[in-house]
Amino acid sequence: MNTLTCGFIGLGLIGGSIAKAIRSHIPDAYIIAYDIHTASLALALEEKVIDQSCEAIDSRFGDCDYLFLCAPVSHNDKNLLLLKQYLSPRTLLTDVGSVKTGIHQHIESLGLQEQFIGGHPMAGSERFGYQNSQASLLENAYYILTPSDAVPQEKISAYQTLVASMGAIPLILTYAEHDYVTAAISHLPHVIAASLVNLVKNADSREGVMKMIAAGGFKDITRIASSSPDMWQQICLTNTDNISALLKDYIKSLQEIDACLENRLAEDIYHFFDAARCYRESFTDASSGPIKAEHVLTVDIADQPGAIATIAALLAEHHVSIKNIGINHNRELAEGALRIEFYTKEALNAAIFILRENNYSIHTR
Fold it and tell me: What is the pTM of this model?
């Protein structure tokens, strides 16, 4: 059996995580990479994630079975022009961008559509760079594939198998479907979260009372507003039509509920919240989106010295790692005085069992 050869143009958070997942699940794979950040390449070599570090995009990438374009989207055009002269017809090109129309159009203009499948792992982190990459980032995350029309079915099937071998869940869409779907469930929510944060910022008092008590529900629904403004600027400029169309629909829905409020239409207001509740509760409890689910519980504790330390020590004794811990000052939408966040769902479940066994009152969302 021939050794699988994978190349990476860009080895940041996503590229590094894919490379680590391939190394973990296909140990004999041969992996080469290029990145402008030479420290990332050096670390990847030291960790034995990659076998060869490249200081330039050259003929060494011509022998790859799979070639992952993981540099910033704005670099894809230049990188593809460099790669085209070296590409073998058997090489399957793919990318990891969160908007697909532009890359598909560019691939078609270069005549490479027979060997391109767009890719978008629906996974991410508030951190960035190769140093924060991890193979587990892809586990149980949807990995959307957008094959060009000219790609043979056997190449699509083989790539689905590779994605599944990394622990991800392959899902095939057209690139137009992808951009509309992600505009609705990822791009527009970032616009809304940022606008809501700005609304509160502008409405707040000079003393910052709103900011002081902005925890619980407000903090949860605006968490994604902390994402990179550079990245979201580029997404808004590349998926503009879809985001704008959905934003207009959202503004219309806000105007409708505003009219219900002004006219005190009790039944319509109830339906507004009940329809949202029912649909929201039908969502799967999987951490599969680009913004990972939080694994959080809150605990009722007495306001006395050592209470927090006792809980931290109890969890440490059972080898349960805590990601974050702090007092929940605003408990209007979340019970429990102490808020504890964990890295994994398994750690959360273990903590719930341990704390309940020790007679603590636990609240989960």
Answer: 0.75
